[in-house]
């Protein structure tokens, strides 16, 4: 099995660590880490500087969000939850370690693990497997420079057109890195520690950067110990002033024990215990993955061409109800052309792209003998191919008004071969499959009355194709192929964002009318959920963020007190369903709020208490009979500069040790005879982390 050389990388970090320390700023308006930057390189053709990345995102006529790394470095910054905590419209549910679930506008609302309906991209290249499934283990927040969130059809410039859209994580290069060398060390409760180092160099037309993080934790709950190694590197070569190529490499190893789900009573009264079934089966999720990619950029008189190519190998060993043993390869290529020009004297911006990506996955299952393979119960091959073409055009009909139109055409093929065990053991091997086609249009308007103020609206069509976790379902220990329909939706959004003097805001209202929404229900939390197409459903809500300086120059020149507020409102419902009527769709709480109050003295220190409030817990079942509890959590973050480029940080969470439900696995009806309601995942208790970072 592939593995990182821990001895070699550990020795390197051990040699570098005596100098280590840490820095960052909690709010865009509290600029401590941004003012500690040693020097920002101007960027390159393949990866523009951060300021240009932000400008490109904020010109989009849609609810897109841009997060710089400085906004989360002074937190524990261990998962996407830490990265996206202050981002409206994004709901990240933590379970244990880096095991979490991501949902945007109800994407994968009832998926009991990871994600569906969202493309996670690293440097614009998909992390997802070819069938659309994916997880987050290769995303290292400490190896990121910026993160952008593109809900729904707003992700069209990347080629994505799912209900949830895309999240793109941009890693630094030697030409955009804060400093040539960055070191970090941190530790905290539950036996948690992490070491990270980054080295980058530029010489002539070449540049190179390497980043490695190792993290280990005993976990808050029993049987939740985990260790993670994440290595990311890139090498760039400037062939000429108009041509550049960049190679990416990544190696990732994850070993995570699973504590399992609990009943609501146990989750609130004895939350640190593990599910006995998880312990007896030594349930775990172990992943080994390697990623290689390239982006080549050619700047022409008529625009710019980017060509991405990638290959990802992933090995999964996952003992749960059975041992899931998979070995897969994903590969792809994606050319893209962008050009800005004038049409009848009007400014026009155009992007045209295509993607072909495919993959094959050997998916076997065995009887779980306390975490080891027993008798084989399934031998299968999963194959996926995707053919996509897309275009988006932005025409400025007035200096402050742009009309946006675009579309994506797709053909996705899913083929499943049972090699003769399990479902088809009596009649030999059998092949099944399904093809999904579609065209997803988009139209929108952007009004920009001032450079820092925008008002926008758009209408987009999305299409979510089932992945193999949906298409292969296990019933009474036998796994077979279920030819589900694609989920289709029309989404309209209206919003505004901007900055005026001391105030910044981001407000979007959206409504999605969905046909065939892919919903799950479970009978056992360790068994993959059953997936079905619902009838007509509606996902609608509000995404709101506000931050403003209440006071400036309070105790020292340049200091400020900043109030931040994030509110995500989810109103996801069935519409006239024969069984559930107009009930709420289970899985997500209707309101999620986060309030922060920051005092910062630039170049010196900041302190920020944070309040997370969920007024109503998520429904467990579609019948709306059992729900998680409401809760308030109080946290505190602080950072101090102790020398040039050297800072310390403190991150305290759940200070009142509140017992709450972080995530649920949905079921059909908790009142049904024999219904299993052991589907709740308790959130972590009181915790404290401290770290140090140095950039030189």
UniProtKB/TrEMBL annotation:
Keyword Secreted: no
Chain ranges of the TonB-dependent receptor-like beta-barrel domain: 188-655
Membrane topology: Multi-pass membrane protein
Entry keywords, A to Z: Cell outer membrane, Membrane, Receptor, Signal, TonB box, Transmembrane, Transmembrane beta strand, Transport
Protein biosynthesis keyword on record: no
InterPro entries associated with the record: Beta-barrel_TonB, Beta-barrel_TonB_sf, Plug_dom, Plug_dom_sf, TonB-dep_rcpt-like
Superkingdom of this protein's organism: Bacteria
Domain TonB-dependent receptor plug, residue spans: 58-166
Cell compartments where the protein resides: Cell outer membrane
Secretion signal span: 1-23
Database matches in PANTHER family: TONB-DEPENDENT OUTER MEMBRANE RECEPTOR, TONB-DEPENDENT RECEPTOR YNCD-RELATED
Family designation: Belongs to the TonB-dependent receptor family.
Record's protein name: TonB-dependent receptor
Organism, as annotated: Paracraurococcus lichenis
Species lineage: Bacteria, Pseudomonadati, Pseudomonadota, Alphaproteobacteria, Acetobacterales
């Amino acid at each position: 099995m592939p593995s990182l050389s821990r001895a070699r990388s550990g020795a390197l970090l051990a040699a570098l660590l005596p100098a280590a320390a840490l820095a960052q700023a909690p709010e865009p308006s509290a600029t401590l880490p941004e003012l500690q930057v040693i020097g920002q390189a101007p960027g390159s053709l393949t990866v523009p500087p951060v300021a240009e990345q932000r400008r490109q995102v904020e010109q989009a006529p849609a609810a897109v969000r841009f997060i710089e790394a400085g906004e989360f470095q002074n937190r524990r910054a261990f998962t996407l939850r830490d990265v996206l905590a202050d981002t409206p419209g994004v709901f990240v549910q933590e379970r244990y370690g880096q095991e979490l679930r991501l949902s945007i506008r109800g994407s994968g609302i009832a998926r009991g693990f990871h994600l569906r309906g969202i493309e996670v991209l690293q440097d614009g290249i998909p992390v997802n497997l070819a069938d659309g499934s994916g997880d987050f283990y290769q995303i290292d927040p400490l190896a990121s420079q910026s993160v952008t969130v593109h809900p729904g059809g707003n992700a069209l410039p990347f080629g994505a057109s799912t209900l949830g859209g895309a999240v793109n994580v941009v890693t630094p290069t030697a030409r955009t890195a804060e400093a040539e060398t960055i070191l970090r060390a941190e530790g905290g409760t539950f036996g948690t520690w992490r070491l990270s180092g980054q080295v980058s160099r530029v010489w002539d037309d070449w540049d190179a950067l390497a980043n490695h993080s190792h993290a280990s934790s005993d976990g808050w709950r029993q049987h939740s110990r985990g260790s993670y190694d994440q290595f990311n590197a890139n090498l760039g070569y400037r062939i000429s002033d108009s041509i550049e190529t960049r190679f990416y490499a990544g190696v990732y190893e994850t070993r995570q024990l699973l504590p399992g789900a609990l009943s609501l009573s146990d989750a609130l009264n004895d939350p640190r215990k593990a599910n006995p079934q998880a312990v007896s089966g030594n349930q775990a999720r172990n992943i080994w993955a390697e990623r290689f990619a390239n982006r080549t950029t050619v700047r022409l008189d008529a625009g710019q061409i980017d060509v991405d190519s990638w290959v990802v190998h992933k090995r999964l060993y996952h003992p749960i109800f059975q041992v899931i043993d998979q070995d897969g390869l994903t590969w792809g290529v994606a050319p893209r052309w962008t050009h800005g020009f004038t049409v009848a004297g009007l400014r026009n911006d155009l992007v045209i792209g295509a993607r072909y990506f495919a993959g094959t996955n050997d998916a076997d299952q065995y009887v779980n003998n306390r975490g080891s393979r027993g008798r084989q119960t399934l031998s299968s091959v999963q194959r996926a191919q995707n053919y996509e073409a897309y275009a988006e055009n932005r025409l400025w009909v007035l200096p402050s008004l742009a009309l946006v139109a675009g579309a994506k055409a797709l053909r996705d093929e899913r083929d499943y071969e049972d090699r003769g065990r399990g479902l088809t053991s009596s009649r030999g091997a059998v092949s099944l499959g399904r093809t999904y086609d579609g065209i997803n249009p988009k139209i929108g308007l952007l009004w920009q009355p001032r450079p820092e103020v925008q008002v926008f609206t758009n209408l987009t069509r999305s299409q979510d194709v089932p992945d193999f976790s949906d298409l292969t379902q296990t019933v009474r220990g036998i796994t077979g192929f279920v030819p589900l329909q694609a989920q289709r939706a029309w989404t309209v959004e209206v919003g505004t964002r901007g900055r005026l003097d001391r105030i910044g805001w981001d407000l979007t209202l959206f409504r999605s009318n969905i046909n065939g929404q892919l919903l799950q229900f479970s009978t056992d939390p360790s068994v993959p959920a059953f997936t079905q197409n619902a009838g007509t459903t509606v996902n609608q809500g509000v995404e709101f963020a506000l931050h403003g300086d209440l006071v400036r120059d309070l105790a020292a020149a340049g200091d400020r007190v900043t109030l931040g507020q994030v509110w995500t409102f989810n109103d996801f419902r069935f519409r006239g369903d024969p069984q559930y009527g107009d009930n709420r769709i289970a899985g997500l709480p209707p309101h999620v709020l986060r309030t922060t109050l920051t005092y910062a003295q630039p170049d010196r220190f900041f302190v920020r208490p944070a309040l997370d409030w969920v007024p109503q817990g998520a429904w467990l079942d579609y019948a709306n009979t059992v729900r998680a509890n409401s809760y308030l959590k109080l946290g505190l973050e602080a950072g101090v500069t102790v020398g040039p480029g050297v800072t310390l940080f403190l991150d305290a969470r759940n200070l009142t040790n509140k017992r709450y439900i972080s995530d649920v696995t949905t079921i059909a009806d908790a009142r049904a005879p024999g219904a299993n309601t052991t589907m709740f995942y308790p959130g972590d208790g009181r915790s404290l982390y401290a770290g140090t970072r140095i950039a030189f």
